[in-house]
């Protein structure tokens, strides 16, 4: 089974399904999203959408924006339950008790697969602690966190420390840790409950080295619509020889993590 470990709700949804079909991807982890860069038809429109992304990455957002994104996710999962594996974000700007309740009510209670993609403001990866504690207490709910900028190297170290504190909760660092990819590889390698998702890699040999160092905890992902499932899969297949390790990266590891295998 080929599983894209990182994608966001598309508008229109059929465009995403077509991309998955073209890439030969069986299923995709689907996160809610407030920005929709795929809607843009010119640079001005893209700037508007990326303004919403900047707000999300800075930890800002209005309640209506969150609710709209969560409704889009619910509709997408209902439309294609055979293709999408739903994850839901929770707000990190709430008291710890409210965060824990949101994990219980909105993720576990809705039968979703995990929590994510979480985007703490730069320097505030510590805000994930209530989420990881709740995921740990729920027996090992996966948690996915944004790994590219503005996430910092210090944030990655904080995340690794939290993962060691709550080892039952698999922590997935996305986008290969962005500009801090070497440190991300080392931290995940040395943190047994952490995983590294490979989307948006800007150096092909970074993917090769990540898989070589962590063959059992690296995950193929596209970060669509920011990335492309066809290109992301081709990158993995370019640098990882056919066989067991490639099969694990392209979906076997995630299938086991989510209880699909």
UniProtKB/TrEMBL annotation:
Residues 3-260 form the Amidohydrolase-related domain. It holds the Pfam family Amidohydro_2. GO terms for molecular function: hydrolase activity. InterPro entries: Amidohydro-rel, Metal_Hydrolase. This is Amidohydrolase-related domain-containing protein.
């Amino acid at each position: 089974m080929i599983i894209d470990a990182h994608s966001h709700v598309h508008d229109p949804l059929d465009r995403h399904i077509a991309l998955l079909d073209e890439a030969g991807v069986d299923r995709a982890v689907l996160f809610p999203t407030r920005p929709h860069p795929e809607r843009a038809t010119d640079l001005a429109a893209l700037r508007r959408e990326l303004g919403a992304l900047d707000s999300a990455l800075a930890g800002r957002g209005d309640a209506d924006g969150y609710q709209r994104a969560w409704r889009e996710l619910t509709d997408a999962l209902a439309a294609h339950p055979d293709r999408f594996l739903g994850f839901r974000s929770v707000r990190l700007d709430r008291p710890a008790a409210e965060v824990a309740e949101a994990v219980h009510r909105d993720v576990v209670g809705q039968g979703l697969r995990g929590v994510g993609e979480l985007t703490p403001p730069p320097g505030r990866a510590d805000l994930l602690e209530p989420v990881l504690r709740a995921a740990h207490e729920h027996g090992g709910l996966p948690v996915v966190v944004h790994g590219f900028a503005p996430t910092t190297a210090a944030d990655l170290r904080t995340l690794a420390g939290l993962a060691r504190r709550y080892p039952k909760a698999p922590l997935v660092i996305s986008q290969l840790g962005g500009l801090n990819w070497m440190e991300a590889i080392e931290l995940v390698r040395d943190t047994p409950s952490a995983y590294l998702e490979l989307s948006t890699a800007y150096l092909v040999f970074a993917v090769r080295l990540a898989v070589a160092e962590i063959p059992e905890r690296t995950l193929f992902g596209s970060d669509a619509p920011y990335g492309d499932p066809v290109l992301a899969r081709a990158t993995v297949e370019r640098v990882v020889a056919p066989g067991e390790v490639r099969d694990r990266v392209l979906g076997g590891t995630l299938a086991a993590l989510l209880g699909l295998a």
